Model the fold of this input.
Amino acid sequence: MIVRRTVGVSHRTAPPSGAAQLRADCGRCFGLCCVVPAFAASTDFAIDKPAGSPCPNLRPDHRCGIHTELRQRGFPGCTVFDCFGAGQQVAQVTFGGRDWRDAPETLPAMAEAFAVLRPLHELLWYLTEAVALRPPADLRAELERARAETLTLTEGDPARLRAVDVTGHRDRVNPLLSRASDAARGPGGVDRRGAHLLGVDLRRVDLRRANLRGALLIGADLRGADLGLADVTGADLRGADLRGADLRRTLFLHQTQLDSARGDTRTGLPRTLTRPAHWTALPLTPVRQPTRSPARAHRGRRR
Done:
């Protein structure tokens, strides 16, 4: 059970389940994403911040003091971070609602727990998405087992969490996710796993059913592109131009990827995702150009 504290009063509520468990709920966290990670002054962050040190913009109530102006104030990196619900898991479940501000000695252990739970919650999100693709029965059973195992790992106390081999667990789960992707995409898609496609013009490349896992698409021109059944697991879409692109059936597309990119009102999105507020309201004139053969698309390394 979760202990929720309000003005000195504690009461218990049932922990969320399913998709709600994997969405960040900042109201039930203690600003861990503003404390645990280190920031390096760059185009993503206006300042340097050491790991484990509260951001100077973090208020005493664990809210961001410049939340509505993050991009304008030089913190776009904050707008595209998602803990996948790990923050409230650490705050309300692992530490039972104990605030690090009231008990500063708990912060190092909270930071360790957050570093483990965040990638585990991300894996849970991908496994949940994979099951929703309705893979063959045997693969679905394997995905369900992996999801149950991952969920069990997230429920450990701080000592048990420290012992979790996150890298090893992820290495065992990733092949299942790849198989789910292959089953959903079917044959015929271009393979651009881990490809370096920074700033590349991809408007005329056939990206339907493409494997874009881990591809670097920073600043890529995807205007009007059809990414139906393309797998974008871990693809870096920072600054990518998605105006007029069709992402309605894109596989493993996460909200943070959209938040880091550019788009407009004609960008087709899955019903489960939200159009970012910074996207332009002006529609793009449809791109009507011949499709380039996938064999001639920009080649990059495989991951």
